[in-house]
Amino acid sequence: MAEGKKNTEKVVAVNGNMITIEFSDRVMQNEVAFAKVGGSNDVKLKSEVIRVRGNRADLQVFESTNGLKVGDEVEFTGELLSVELGPGLLTQVYDGLQNPLPLLAEKSGFFLQRGVYLRALDRETKWAFTPIAKVGDKVRPGDRIGSVPEGVVTHYIMVPFAWKGEWTLESVAPAGEYTVDEIMAVAVSDQGEKRNITMTQQWPVKIPISDYAEKLLPEKTLVTQQRTIDTFFPVAVGGTFCTPGPFGAGKTVLQHAISRYAEADVVIIAACGERAGEVVEILREFPELEDPRTGQPLINRSIIICNTSSMPVAAREASVYTAVTLAEYYRQMGLNTLLLADSTSRWAQALREMSGRLEEIPGEEAFPAYLESLIAGFYERAGLVRLRTGEIGSVTIGGAVSPAGGNFEEPVTQATLKVVGAFLGLSRERSDARRYPAIHPLDSWSKYKSVVDAKEVEFARGILRQGAEVNQMMKVIGEEGTSLADFIVYLKSEFLDYVYLQQNTFDNIDGASSAERQRYMFDRIYKVLTGSFSLPDKDTARSYFLNLRQMFMDLNYLAMDSREFKEQEAAIEAKIAERSTVNA
Amino acid sequence: MRKVYHKIIHIAGNVITVEADDVSYNELAEVTSARGVSLAQVIRLADGKVSLQVFAGSRGISTGDQVRFLGREMQVSSSEALLGRVFTGRGTPRDGRPEVTSDMVDIGGPSVNPAKRIIPRNMIRTNIPMIDVFNTLVESQKLPIFSIAGEPYNELLARIALQAEVDVIVLGGMGLKYDDYLKFKNTLDEQGALSRTVMFIHTAADPTVECLMVPDMSLAVAEQFALEGKRVLALLTDMTNFADALKEIAITMEQIPATRGYPGDLYSQLASRYEKAVDFDSAGSITILAVTTMPGDDVTHPVPDNTGYITEGQFYLRHGRIEPFGSLSRLKQQVNGKTRPDHRAIMDSMIRLYSDYRSTLEKQSMGFQMSAWDKKLLKYGKLFEKNMMDLSVNISLEDALDLGWKILADCFDRNEVGIKTDLVEQYWPEAKK
Question: Whole-prediction pTM value?
């Protein structure tokens, strides 16, 4: 890397958010540069080199290019697109380039004024530093110098990942209160080079942080407190999943529910090219909501990367990388991080727009040919790892996909399905029938471990499958042509759907179902599913199951340790005993 | 005085290319030809060549005509004097009255900082049960009406505009038939709403490029009023024409099309307009109601499809009724918890039962025997369609909820409606208890 290099070149063409420059010195792929609008220093637009041809380079500009002229100057920085890592990231709201949005609002008001770039971390806050390393210690990149408490987590100050080789600590700051820019340690290399370690470091977003001993197989379930997910289509700690669905099927509501209730240490929400209103909900609600596991506001474990649909497209492309880099950084502290990206299709569209401007030969639906490898590369940054300290850390990635026309055959969905471990497909039929969450119970799949017994889950899915078949059949041969036994299977599948698969996100109790509660409830429901009942005709059967359904639904709205819960349970027992033909 | 250029080297579609220097991206120019003077906008710079889209179209432009760059971008007035006025897509008066040139602001300004938005919290009452009860419209929402040609979407738009309590209405018409424009104007006039309305109208006969300007002009004006604390309702009809205009320019510029000829940035283009809908922290708000006609009634067509992913729900208008399936107001949860405790329960259970009714109808049409349950559903479905879905129903939310309970009680037993027992206790009509 040519550090300190700062050459200046000139614009020769402007096409939307892409500019072409002619250079005399040298440029680096993905190097960051600033285009000066009208040649002045007042408005400088951040941009990134995306292609070099001969003595010309194409740059994507992260802002509106209005007002740029042929001949305007472009300043190169000699650095890749990077983020700043350090204490104070949690609770922040950034745009795709790690600009803190609330600070930006203080500075420039209602609108996102272009060319304003602020530091990502607060420079004034003092952090209580406790040293871990001692003077004379030999350290490598990623080794811990000390720690500071940051909200719910212990934030380790590490030797910058970008450094190479072994260093000897010449000094380490004593315990005390420091700002992020103060020097925490001084290190000397074998060649005698001396460098300072502060609380912050830079890392290029498009390169994974790979400072760990080994990658492990994700086995433990990441409890999201959503019954359909944890029981039927579980997600693993360090695994990947995707939630494709047509618009209006409830992707975002589901992602929000997961972001609230998932049992992860740090949650990073990347609102990528979606509605600003949805982010505002998170921004305003998370500081108010309490995380039951820590007793602190939810925002204390969250970072929000917000590059909504009307914000510049190129920054949208950067935002998912910014988000995953932050997730990897907290993983290095032995934490379980969860990244929720909504939606990866918008990121893919940003790639497509740029590819079109570059006049590359288009692949399917004009997406670039390298789409698949980029998607795979992104999801591969998830994983469960054993750090060099022996601790376990993880990055779990969940991506929403917004397929054009709700058709899962399109390139982004297909490329995603190839690389994820769980597929939670949302369906239009279910959302039209108000059966939320609209995760399709037959089409979806997961390779991870459920919170309840696998055999019982398989049996329950069997009931759902048979129920769907009977339902199809009934449409052809009518209810009167269906046998009573088949009809009861259908009623059981509907019962399971209503009282277990469907969950009311907007209810305080039903919205979050702990693993323990899921096991308990599933056990009760399993008994109904496997039970046999004396039901003489279809009308009696229907009304009996409607009754049961109502009683179980009421139970779902009651706190498990409440007296009402026990009473309702007893009532259900009695109801089951009424018709049950098996002596328990 | 700015330089005048004479060397037009390329004319195709509505785009001309001229050799010029010291030109900014997105700048405006005046093209003077035998047909008169037209505005044009810079859409690409490449070395010494500048491509411009000509508002009046390129017909009649000769290679020797003059192009004068204005050194500014497209602007619109933001003064109160706009109220009650009608303009074209490029901002010239359509009503024969003088131009308004005070307080000019750039159009297509930057996006609102999400940190400056607040959670929408006010319901907009329309007295249409299919909206108020089932898909409540919320201040600062962006919502399209998905429809096919021939449906009364413009009438619906006008009715909502008149019944909604807002300070300013901005109407952006794109590719409007001239009589549709007159109808809009007359309806607003009759109800005395014209004096709080600003109109930017592009009719089907006007040049395509002007169609592209309409949303930006309308929303720039809406934004200025909202910043002054006004509650603004922006009506955009029909956004499919806007998308088609985008397609036309993109193809002329030889961009690689993504799906069905539309450019790859269709999503971003639509989003940057719809995202102007906002509830400002300590200022006014913009609510956007748009019409998106679906070619061939196909919701997977790129325009309605991309729109659905951007907007906060959609209303399907079909056979003169707002369809309960597919119609959705994403923001309804923000307000329908505060109206009446039974609002959500009525909303969910009535739709669920209506969906069951539809499957029963299918069964019936195939000649199957109807069970006792099916008969109940059939009765319910008919009542629901007649008393709730019909667009002529004009009742308040509270009356509509009471009506909902009445319909349920007329058709079902208490434990068949799938509503939590305590709500049933409270609201089930007395006579049926």
Answer: 0.91
